[in-house]
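TICKET: design request
STATUS: open
ATTACHED STRUCTURE:
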C-alpha cells in the first residue's frame, strides 16, 4: 500500500499564518496527499521561546488553535496531523491531533517531554502529558505522533513499531540542526 506523505514549514509569526494556510490549500489542491504533517503549534507566534509565562499570550494562542479546523478544511489531504495549544480547566497542553474531512478534529495526547532551555521554555508554558504515544488507526492507516524532543529521549518508537504503525509523524518547531535528522533516523531504526 502506498501513501503520499507531505510535511511543510510554517512561519513563526501568527500574522503570517493566514497566508500560509491559503498557500497550503492551493498547493495541495494541485497534488492531494494521504497525510500532511504540520509543524508543532503551527499558526501561532513562538510564545514558548519566552522564559516568562504570559496569560494573555497563552489565551491568544489557545484561541487561535480553537479555530484550526477552519484552516484545515480547504486543504486537500485525507489526514492532517500536528499539535495545538489547548486549555482544559487549569491545564495547558501542547496536544496532538488528527484531522480528517469525515471526522473533523480528533484530539490526541499532550506532549510529555518538555524542554526547559534557551529557545524552548516548554515547562513554563505547558503541562506534561503521557510519555507513551499510542498507535492511532484511521481506516487502513496506522500511525502515531512523537512531538519534537520526544524523538530524542523517548523509548516509545520500538513499541510503536511492534504495534504495527506505518508512520511515526514528528511535528516539531525547530531549526535545521543535524541532530533532528539523526533523531528521526534513530526513531525509524528503533521502530
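STATUS: resolved
RESOLUTION: sequence designed for all positions
ATTACHED SEQUENCE:
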Amino acid at each position: 500500500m502506498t501513501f503520499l506523505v507531505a510535511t511543510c514549514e510554517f512561519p513563526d509569526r501568527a500574522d503570517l499564518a493566514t497566508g500560509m494556510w491559503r498557500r497550503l490549500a492551493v498547493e495541495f489542491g494541485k497534488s492531494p496527499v494521504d497525510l500532511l504533517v504540520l509543524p508543532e503549534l503551527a499558526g501561532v507566534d513562538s510564545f514558548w521561546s519566552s522564559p516568562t509565562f504570559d496569560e494573555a499570550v497563552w489565551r491568544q494562542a489557545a484561541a487561535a488553535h480553537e479555530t484550526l479546523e477552519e484552516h484545515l478544511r480547504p486543504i486537500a489531504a485525507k489526514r492532517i496531523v500536528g499539535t495545538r495549544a489547548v486549555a482544559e480547566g487549569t491545564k495547558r497542553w501542547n496536544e496532538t491531533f488528527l484531522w480528517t474531512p469525515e471526522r473533523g478534529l480528533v484530539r490526541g495526547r499532550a506532549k510529555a517531554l518538555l524542554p526547559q532551555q534557551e529557545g524552548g521554555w516548554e515547562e513554563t508554558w505547558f503541562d506534561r502529558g503521557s510519555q507513551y504515544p499510542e498507535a492511532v488507526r484511521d481506516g487502513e492507516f496506522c500511525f502515531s505522533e512523537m512531538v519534537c524532543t520526544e524523538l530524542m529521549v523517548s523509548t516509545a518508537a520500538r513499541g510503536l513499531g511492534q504495534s504495527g504503525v506505518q508512520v511515526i509523524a514528528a511535528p516539531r518547531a525547530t531549526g535545521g540542526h543535524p541532530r533532528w535528522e539523526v533523531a528521526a533516523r534513530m526513531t525509524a531504526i528503533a521502530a
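CLOSING REMARK: The helical segments are 17-30, 55-66, 68-72, 122-125, 150-153, 156-162, 178-190. The CA atoms of residues 12 and 46 lie 6 Å apart.
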